[in-house]
Amino acid sequence: MAKKNTLEGLPKSTVILGAASTVARYIAMEFARAGHALVLADFDEEECARIAADIAIRFDVPCHTIPFDALDHENHPAFLNTCREKLGGLPGGVVLCFGYMTEQSETQEDFAKAKRTIDTNFTGAVSILEVFAAAFEERKGGFITALSSVAGDRGRKANYIYGASKAGLTAYLEGLRNRLHENNVQVTTVKPGFMDTKMTYGMGLPAPLTASPEQAARIIFNATARGKDIVHVLFMWRYIMLIIRHIPEWQFKKMDI
User: b vs e for 171-186, b when ≥16 Cβ sit within 10 Å of the residue's Cβ?
Assistant: First the structure.
């Protein structure tokens, strides 16, 4: 028997948070291809407007833009109200793509950068998703898909502040999924692994472990539609992180990773 499509029965409309990022643009295109009206939200309003115009022409769907700041917690309830106005009602779901990452050494030496990492990746995500979660819970239907990271699976000296922010997000999404399940709201946690984006430009990532934005977007859309709880964009990362999580601590702390 075929598994029910999570998107069936919901309004064909989706909000993309952090829509100016490369992978978010391709995720938006996947939802547009499926006939969804979109709200593209980001602090980079000019880039969002360019993306929205392109998607509207390519896929002949309504594509709106709304300024969004993950750190402006007080205005997050008003942001959802604006989404309702643009879309003519509560959207079917939301995809969280925003994030912040800088060099570990910079976060060690400059607490402002460490704070920005935590506030963006964790606090900002919790703030906006709680607003959407309450609305979907009341309706008894919806979907929330959020990009976390394999970096949150174990603290490594190479990126432990960024990893800690993503570990918090992963744990939050797991609890949110448990809370919302009885009200027919699907929460999907995405752990992309390496992706070929502006954030990773020049890092010399291994090709077999690196997903293109287009590939990642297709996998993320399909995982959302199929109601997956946790998805690794490239399946190898599931096994890589399984091994890393099971390295004994006495050995792990000696490793240069």
Answer: ebbeebbeebeeebbb
